[in-house]
Design goal:
By secondary structure, this protein is mostly beta strands. Among the domains are: about 45 residues, no CATH class; about 50 residues, no CATH class; about 90 residues, no CATH class; about 90 residues, no CATH class. It is about 5% helix and about 30% strand. The protein contains four helices and 40 strands. A two-stranded antiparallel sheet has the order 1-2. The chain has a two-stranded antiparallel sheet with strand order 3-6. The chain has a two-stranded antiparallel ribbon with strand order 4-5. A hairpin with a 2-residue loop joins strand 31 and strand 32. The longest helix has 12 residues. It is rod-shaped, with a radius of gyration of 70 Å. It starts with 8 loop residues before the first strand and ends with a strand.
């Protein structure tokens, strides 16, 4: 430390008077130009430019070396400077900047990676699985490689794919509510299983409470998956499964069912067309047509799968397949107790007698005057065998009246004894005019001559008709049935039905009462050579 001694020496062109130097002692001519201390106190150095002892560690005018004056203007600093440890520094920094002795500047600890978060706290130059460092918000960080995220606490790049504790970003722990299992396959938390009563969302990012009113896999209850028969797509509405589209060949109903219209008994041939076969106790739908498979008691199943009453069915009267036909044309009737019965006849030509249409008298016979002068021409025709042409209208045949002498006999009687003409006129000989195509008792010809047949005389016949000159059996007496040819009545063998253990009602094809038919003869008889109505 300077002692304040004064002396004088000549230095250059001046005399050094030995001025006191607080940081040195003695007097010395420096470089032949400057007066200075001979020695400096410890920590001080002689400035040969000024001759003064200076502290190079703190003197901003001699900072680090003599005459090294620090700048007085610094970025982000107030005007002025300081020397610290022989280094020039700003005297003070403008907030929020801070003085960094290492960086010898006013720095931002938020962004300066050499002073990140605090002065003189440098960031690493780079990181594993990442790039160069930077300072953000006073924290060292970096841009990590794909699939990694920066952990600022531990200053490392962590994997963010496949790690449910760092999924997509560091410390992003997967916590999907109601999930029992979770994964992080792509950096997104996904649920792989949910608690009971919950379902994975479509993107598997959530577990959603199951709505049993709308969920097709839990429709009406948990784990009750929709399986509408025949549906190609379906839905759940108010807890009920419904088809929205059907497989080929099926039809979608308004209730959301897929229906086969060819076999559904409730939708046979069309939606809501329920089978209702009359008299059926069970039924089915085949190719869109309703069929009975069994009938209620008293009815019989036909080959066409209908239920019929053999006692009343016109198409199955008495037995299956037997259809009632009524003769002549225009006649009508009914099936009564299994027998075809005529109930009305075409008038005025026919009348209903004992359940049959009887041909009424033609009324069209050629009447001739009752004199011998007129008889003579007729006798010539009669002798020539032209009786029918002479006696009856066209389409009718002259038949000898049953029980009387034939016309030939009457004629022979007249020729042998004209007196017997009285007997002839007394109806002991004569003919009646019949349409043998329809006459019951002379069907196909005169029954009295054997040329035709008396339909009413067929053994065991119930009701009958003459149609196109042929006897047609409509029904037979009890215990008999029509033959295949329809011209005879055959005895029926009784049998038990397999279903009820009762007599088969089809075995008896007739009513209990045999209807007898009496043909009312045409009331025209031969009187001489004329034909008159029978009295």
């Amino acid at each position: 430390m300077g002692n304040g001694q004064s002396s004088s020496i000549f230095c250059g062109n001046q005399i050094c008077l030995g001025s006191l130097d607080p940081n040195g002692s003695g007097l010395k001519c420096i470089s032949g130009q400057f007066c200075g201390a001979a020695t400096c106190d410890p920590g001080y150095t002689i400035n040969l430019n000024t001759g003064l002892c200076v502290n190079l560690a703190v003197d901003p005018l001699n900072c680090g070396s003599p005459s090294n004056a620090c700048a007085t203007s610094w970025p982000n600093a107030s005007p002025g400077a300081q020397c610290l440890g022989g280094l020039c520094l700003p005297s003070s920094c403008i907030a929020p900047y801070q003085l960094s002795t290492t960086s010898r500047a006013c720095v931002s600890t938020n962004t300066d990676k050499a002073n990140c978060g605090a002065v003189n706290k440098p960031c690493p130059s780079s990181y594993a699985f990442g790039g160069a460092s930077s300072c953000q918000g006073g924290v060292c960080t970096t841009t990590c490689n794909a699939g990694y995220g920066f952990d600022s606490t531990y200053q490392i790049c962590r994997p963010t794919i496949g790690d449910v504790t760092n999924c997509g970003s560091v410390r992003n722990v997967c916590q999907i509510q109601y999930a029992t299992q979770q994964t992080c396959p792509t950096g997104i938390c996904l649920a792989s299983a949910c608690a009971s009563g919950y379902l994975l969302s479509a993107d598997a990012t959530a577990c959603i409470a199951i709505d049993i009113n709308t969920n097709v896999n839990n429709c009406g209850g948990l784990n009750k998956a929709c399986a509408v028969s025949g549906a190609s797509s379906q839905r759940c509405v108010s807890g009920q499964c419904q088809a929205t589209a059907c497989l080929s060949g099926l039809t979608l109903s308004s209730s959301g069912a897929c229906i086969d219209l060819t076999s559904s008994v409730s939708n046979c041939g069309g939606l809501n067309r329920a089978c209702a076969v009359s008299g059926a106790s069970s039924q089915r739908c085949v190719s869109g047509q309703c069929q009975a498979t069994a009938c209620i008691f008293g009815l019989t199943l036909t080959s066409a799968f209908a239920c019929v009453d053999l006692n009343t069915s016109l198409d199955n009267c008495g037995t299956l397949g037997f259809s009632c036909t009524f003769s002549p044309a225009g006649a009508s009737g009914a099936c009564i107790l299994g027998s075809c019965i005529v109930t009305s006849c075409p008038t005025p030509k026919y009348t209903l007698v004992n359940g049959a249409c009887k041909l009424a008298p033609s009324g069209r016979a050629r009447a001739k005057r009752d004199t011998w002068a007129i008889y003579h021409p007729f006798m010539r025709d009669a002798l020539a065998g032209n009786v029918a042409r002479t006696l009856c209208p066209s389409g009718e045949e002259a038949c000898p009246i049953e029980g009387s002498s034939t016309f030939d006999k009457a004629l022979a009687l007249y020729k042998s004894d004209p007196a017997e003409m009285k007997a002839f006129f007394a109806l002991q000989g004569g003919y009646e005019c019949l349409d043998t195509t329809e006459a019951l008792e002379s069907c196909g010809g005169c029954a009295s001559t054997g040329a035709g047949r008396d339909c009413t005389a067929i053994p065991h016949v119930g009701s009958t008709a003459c149609q196109a000159s042929t006897c047609l059996i409509l029904s037979c007496a009890p215990g008999y049935r029509r033959s295949i040819t329809g011209d005879r009545c055959l005895r029926v063998k009784r049998r038990k039905t397999a279903q009820h253990g009762r007599e088969d009602p089809s075995a008896n094809a007739t009513t209990a009462t045999r209807h007898r038919h009496y043909s009312k003869r045409s009331q025209f008889v031969l009187l001489g050579d004329s034909v008159r109505k029978h009295p």
